[in-house]
Prior knowledge:
Number of strands: 2
Helix content: 40-55%
Strand content: 5-15%
CATH class of the domain at 87-144: Alpha Beta
CATH architecture of the domain at 87-144: Roll
Family: Belongs to the UPF0561 family.
Distance between the termini: 131 Å
Order of helices and strands: HHEEHH
Largest sheet: 2 strands, antiparallel
CATH topology of the domain at 87-144: Ubiquitin-like (UB roll)
Protein name: Chromosome 2 open reading frame 68
Region (Disordered): 39-92
Structural class: mainly alpha
Shape: rod-shaped
Mean pLDDT: 81
Amino acid sequence: xxxxAGWRYRPGGRLDMSHGFVRHIRRxxxxxxxxxxxxxxxxxxxxxxxTPPRPRRPDQPVYRPRRRxxxxxxxxxxxxxxxRGPRLFCLEYEGDDGSVTSVIVHQxxxxxxxxxRVCARSPLEPPLRRALCxxxxxxxxxxxxxG
Length: 147
């Protein structure tokens, strides 16, 4: 109990640092700093040689919408408009052998022209040719709004 009394009435009321706990903490901090310094130096020495960067993917082309009737004229890369006028319909003729002949009919086409184009790709007998011409003529009249 005497030791306890001496402990309680120590002059200045300071902490007893004789246990060495703080010394251990400081020693650990210094050791950690030295270790980190050694790692940094080793990492700096062990750097790999600089390699060229990987090739980049080619840039995507930028989408630029077409101008509609703006200044500078028609700069569209598509084909020029057909002089025969706008498309009316697509005529498909299936021959006896099963082959399909497709002809696009424009507003300025005549029934005879369309029949000749169909016959150039798949020959027809004269009665069938006349029937086709009549049918195309009726269809053209109906699509043009005359008749």
